[in-house]
Design a protein that fits this description.
Elements (H helix, E strand, L loop, with lengths): L2 H7 L5 E5 L8 E5 L6 E10 L3 E7 L2 E6 L2 E5 L4 H8 L11 E7 L3 E7 L4 E5 L3 E15 L2 H9 L4 E3 L4 H19 L10 H20 L1 E12 L2 H16 L2 H18 L3 H28 L2 E3 L3 E3 L14 E6 L2 E6 H10 L6 E3 L7 E2 L4 H4 L17 E6 L2 E6 H10 L6 E3 L7 E2 L4 H6 L12
Length: about 450
């Protein structure tokens, strides 16, 4: 009896002419074609549409992967042989194989985000905590790896079953890549596109090997700072826009007076009367002062005092940041000069805005121009002049009397001396000042040759 006759006699067997799958959902990734108690005739067709792949599993092993196209399922088709072998296993069931359809289109608009802020070192703000979030898209590019590593025996696999794992990997890689970029916080916004493309390139090798999935798009929608840092930035922006805070305060006060004057209610009358009385008192006081000292009344700004000659501006002395034996802080040139005079051999460093690094105070003209010269030391007393000595008496600086003593103690030895300005060492006995110390103005006799 032929295989198909046996199948026809099988009580529950049904016969399929076309095996295909159409999906109207947006989250189904894998669908197992219902094959229980069914049989495939020798002229059945397998239809795999664009955006799909079909996987045949025979006796628990993946036997073949089919891309888009129409395939004739018969035993003359070599790739089908392994699959049809599963149908002839003792005929306990029509067959022991599965047909799995894989959705290979893109799954878009998947959100990702850091569950908690992560630390980042910024050159301007120092260590800060930031959050990042965005969207990503992915698709199955290796159906065999995807079935083996992720789906297993699941007959209906949706995106909800894998997006959690994908998000964790994406967030971990994103945090590391953003930190490695070392970009200033305020410049990150203009680099979202480059960062996203770089992250996608870094992640795809791992995702393709581990899951059979490729990240087709990775978008950073926003990188946000903590609320307190954003408020500080908002205040800094306001200060830059407002400029003159006194003018801004006066403007807000004038607006408040206008609003109070336009309120005709009881409260508004009280406020208006209070403002009116207050302005009247101010005008009266100003007119009283004007009567004593002169002046001019302006209906918009009140009584103006007579113009007075403004004193010339004080000549401010430049200041520098100082670090040295005299302490640390910001000091004027005169104060830094005092510190240099107190310790001329110390390491005195200064810095001013715009300098790339600290400088020695002795290199700054504003400081050295006010530094008095070092007083010359007094000449040595007669007999107290020192020379560099080298001989039986040792080595070092010694007075003329000390050197003469060494010559008298060892007249036959070699005694050499030197001082600043001499081109070379000299025998001590040839120096007139030392010979005078020996008595008689004559050096001791030289040893016999």
């Amino acid at each position: 009896m032929s295989l198909w006759n046996m199948l026809k006699q099988h009580a529950g067997a049904q016969f399929m002419e076309v095996i295909d799958w159409t999906d109207d959902t947006r989250d189904t990734m894998v669908y197992r074609y219902p094959t229980f108690n069914q049989a495939i005739t020798d002229n059945s067709k397998l239809v795999v549409r664009e955006g799909q792949a079909a996987v045949f599993v025979s006796e628990g092993q993946l036997s073949e992967v089919f891309g888009p196209g129409t395939y004739s399922l018969d035993t003359r088709n070599a790739p089908m042989m392994r699959f049809f072998q599963s149908i002839m296993y003792k005929m306990e069931e029509p067959y022991k194989g599965d047909v799995l359809f894989i959705n290979t289109t893109q799954f878009t608009d998947n959100g990702w985000g850091t569950p908690k802020p992560f630390m980042l070192r910024d050159a301007e703000f120092g260590p800060v905590r930031i959050r990042a979030f965005g969207i990503y898209s992915f698709r199955v590019t290796d159906p065999a790896t995807f079935i083996r590593q992720i789906v297993g025996t699941d007959g209906l696999f949706t995106t909800d079953e894998i997006t959690g794992q994908l998000k964790k990997k994406l967030v971990s890689t994103a945090q590391s890549s953003i930190a490695k970029a070392k970009m200033p916080i305020l410049d990150l916004a203009m680099a979202y596109g480059d960062l996203g493309d770089g992250l996608r390139g870094d992640m795809n090798p791992t995702f393709q090997e581990a899951y059979g999935i490729t990240i087709t798009d990775f978008t950073i929608s926003n990188i946000s700072l903590p609320d307190e840092v954003e408020k500080a930035l908002d205040n800094r922006s306001k200060m830059g826009i407002l400029g003159d805070l006194n003018a801004y305060t006066q403007l807000k006060a004038a607006d408040a007076i206008e609003v109070a004057a336009g309120n005709t209610g009881i409260g508004g009358m009280g406020v208006g009367m209070g403002v009116g009385f207050g302005m009247g008192n101010q005008v009266g006081a100003q007119m009283g002062r004007a009567g004593q000292f002169g002046g001019q009344f302006n209906p918009h700004t009140g009584m103006q005092p007579p113009p007075q000659a403004a004193p010339p501006p004080l000549q401010s002395e430049p200041t520098f940041h100082y670090n040295g034996p005299g302490g640390q802080g910001q000091f004027t040139v005169s104060q830094i000069v005092e510190k240099l005079i107190a310790d001329r051999d110390g390491n005195h460093q200064v810095w001013a805005a715009g300098w790339p690094a600290w400088k020695s105070a002795s290199e700054v003209p504003e400081i050295t121009s006010k530094l008095p010269p070092v007083a010359a030391p007094p000449p040595p007393l007669p007999g107290q002049e020192k020379l560099h000595y080298n001989g039986p008496g040792g080595q070092g600086e010694m007075t003329l009397a000390e050197i003469a003593g060494h010559l008298m103690g060892a007249p036959d030895a070699t005694h050499h001396v030197w001082k600043q300005g001499w081109p070379a060492w000299k025998p001590a006995s040839e120096v007139p000042e030392i010979a005078a110390q020996l008595g008689g103005g004559a050096p001791p006799p030289l040893p016999p040759a």
